[in-house]
Request: fold
Amino acid sequence: MSVMDHWPAESIWEAVSPLLPGFTVEVLPEIDSTNTELMRRARAGQTEATLLVAERQTAGRGRLGRPWQSAVGDSLTFSLGLPFAPQDWSGLSLAVGLSLAESLHPDIGLKWPNDLWVDDRKLGGILIEAATAGAHSQLVVGVGINIRPCPAEGLSTPPAALNELWPEASAGAALLRLAMPLVRTLLEFERSGFAPLRTRFEARDVLRGRAVQTSEGLQGQAIGLTASGALRLVNDAGEHAVHSSEVSVRPIPSRA
Ligand code: BTN
Reply:
């Protein structure tokens, strides 16, 4: 079976190209990282809107410089690159996570800033990068989602998989569900920013009401988001807004 036979590339192209003129879909059996490839292309001046899917990544990258490992055949790994010029970039990764969760399943939660969670386990992650191409910015949104259970070696929490919620899920079916809504969300974000999406994010916010700690040592109770998507924490010293996407946050386990 050829690579293209089981990816709904044509259906995705038909759904998305009215929104993004010049849009293309590419499926590769292997690449170092779909984000790295679209960033390379952007720097070389190739800025057409592109959905790049890889069946296998040899050097997948996660947030905060971490590697992203995914089991071949059991995960969805892709990047979407497009020219992008919002007035304010704040909250973009939250908007992407919200779009993915809403497309895929009502029980998918969002862990600020941009992890997809199911029952306190990570289902997927998002890596957002941008390159300056001449006078324009090229956005690269990278997404990795576990479709079937994958090995948990070295991870503090075993990952979740989409087929727990959607038993017949495949990478192609998941991509078909999420691609067009994701493009719509990005275009809406470009026009209106994060504020109109805040209530919907908060409805899936898995940290809300919990004691959390940031990688910078700040502890407090998570009480939702600001209009620009910063995480609101409250502790004895008052309220804090955690802005940086370079910060990671984890719930503090409650004592039994
Ligand atoms: C994270 O949670 O740390 C973000 C993970 C992002 C992984 C995806 S897989 C497709 C794209 N290519 C990459 O190298 N990374 C992103």
Summary: Confidence is low (pLDDT under 50) at residues 1-5. Residues 33-35, 57, 60-63, 66, 68, 77-79, 115, 125-127, 142-144 surround biotin (CB under 6 Å). The first strand starts at residue 24 and ends at 28. The helical segments are 9-16, 34-43, 92-104, 171-192, 198-203.
